[in-house]
Amino acid sequence: MPQSSLESFQPDLLLCRLCDAVPTGLDLDNGYDHYESLAELQKSASGDKYCRLCQMMWESIVQVHQKQRFHLGTHPILSETWPVRLYGLPNPAGEGAWRGYDALELRSGDRAKCEDRTWVTAKTKARTEYPVVSRLYLHKGDWVCPLLYTTVCLDDKSPTGFGIATRWLESCTNHHMHPDIKPGFPDLPTRVIDVDPTSPMIKLAVKGQRLHERAPYTALSYCWGKSKATITTPDNLHRHTHVGMDYQSLPRAIQDAITVTRNLSIRYLWVDALCILQGSVPDAVRDWLTESSKMSQIYGDATLAIIAADSQDCQDEFLLSRQLVVSEARQSRDGIPGRNVLSAYRAGMVPGYVNRKANTWSTRAWTLQEVALSHRALIYTNEQVYWKCGAHGLVSSDGHLSVLPRIDALQEAHLRNDWTRVVIEYSRRFMTNPADKLPALSGLARLHCDANGLAYAAGLCRENIKTELLWRTEHSEKLSPKRPSVWRAPSWSWASIDGPIDYDMSDMHAGTQGGGDGDMQVNQIHLEYLNSHDSYGRVTSGWLSLRGRLRSATSLVLDQYHSAGDVYDGKKMLGRAYADEKRQWPEFEEVEGPLWLLLVTGATGLLLEPHAGAPAQEFKRIGAFFLSRFGRNEVPTWDVMDIKLL
């Protein structure tokens, strides 16, 4: 029987020397220098002895370049002198069609000519020198030449879609090393949803009431939004557990989560709205305080987290049918039919990446710990489905490795070792209930402190208290950090502020001389909690007792956004101060004291004011500062005082 054109294909005879030398093991961080110029690539892609892979790359670059010009409104100049660099998108199971790759990413450009480009790189999320970025995608079985393929799933509810998810889970469970996952089935939360496909009603299962102590379960991460959600309260708990809920009456996001859980052959699902009692009555409040303190266990022990990343509301379904951006029927010169799938993306997006700014879920405070605590996650977006696990980061539904912006910065190594990075990201997120500021991060806080043997204090670590006191708020024309109307945390904690913060005070003044270490000593940290058994949850009162060097200041001259300015003692400029929140102070005018500077470490410290109505020596924080050269030189003359910081 004669061989088909595919069976008789010999790749080595159709590749140029550079393509033939493409190594295995490439990824989005370590590329391969291809031709030194686009002109050389074009030459290799044409003529009688053209390279099949170069032909695909050249046509891809040209088409993506044209789409940038005509569809995205940008006008890059395609220079024949630009070098070409390849990055591999390997299949984590090693089943790529060619040398372990499912696709190759091509980048071409020149840093000196492209400083205004904002293509995002996988590792740094910073501007890159390559203004033309494209990927070659082919459906498995549809070949332009049998080098590259992808298995893009266009229907999340199809057998193919659930089959991909099932294979990911099975592969991860059987082959990936997860030292933090306990062997055997996980402990079940207090309540879970029983998704038994044979039952006409959806019931809650309660631990100790016909519910096994240990079994696989999934956990949903989504946005409640503005729609009325189905919730469990003390009044309907009996009905939800014994009679059940009609599937069609549930919000669409929960319906989809049930569908995913069933198709993965998992019996139980955890959803906050249904598995934690909601409401303001005492029984509901007690249950919420207890269950919300278990987030690290609930998401950490879940077999899988289901993340509805592009849902803005609980009524938004996330199991979608979608169309490819561009799908062009092609035929190679050898007569092999196929389909070349190309995509052009706006600045700030690269094919295969989740656009963090495009969805509500990634700006929600609670979701930060939900995804970071989960060992495995299916992430459903409008474009495609992604897989996240500790072994492989994120794998998109077309099989290649990718990175979800911000999440990569919160991998376990950072969670364990750099709490300030977590806090910086968290402070940029929003929440419906301001009182949730500390509870919504309690799971990550517990993980960090347990891993490092630290004690927690209203968002800060007691052992690192000096460094972590030196946060400052970020102000702009659009951002106006402020303290909530209802007390939530001591003034020295970042949790007392609604709005973004940063920990760059030390960086601002790195390398300065003088000022010593501030000699500040924290003598006592006193905190009281709404739930006396949960030191990571809501705080009802608190203060610091400390000894340190203090100096009074006579005025603060504010400038940009009414939030920053120079601190003076008479006509002597002591340093630069950053107010925690904007005040109704006139711009470029002096604000009279009483103001106090508390030196914490080096040349940086806290801006204080006496607490209204409190005894002497009791202050509250209103900002942070770093000292001028004059201010640093006179630190030895500052008074050493014992104070209480509220």
UniProtKB/TrEMBL annotation:
<protein>
    <submittedName>
        <fullName>HET-domain-containing protein</fullName>
    </submittedName>
</protein>
<dbReference type="Pfam" id="PF06985">
    <property type="entry name" value="HET"/>
</dbReference>
<feature type="domain" description="Heterokaryon incompatibility">
    <location>
        <begin position="217"/>
        <end position="370"/>
    </location>
</feature>
<dbReference type="InterPro" id="IPR010730">
    <property type="entry name" value="HET"/>
</dbReference>
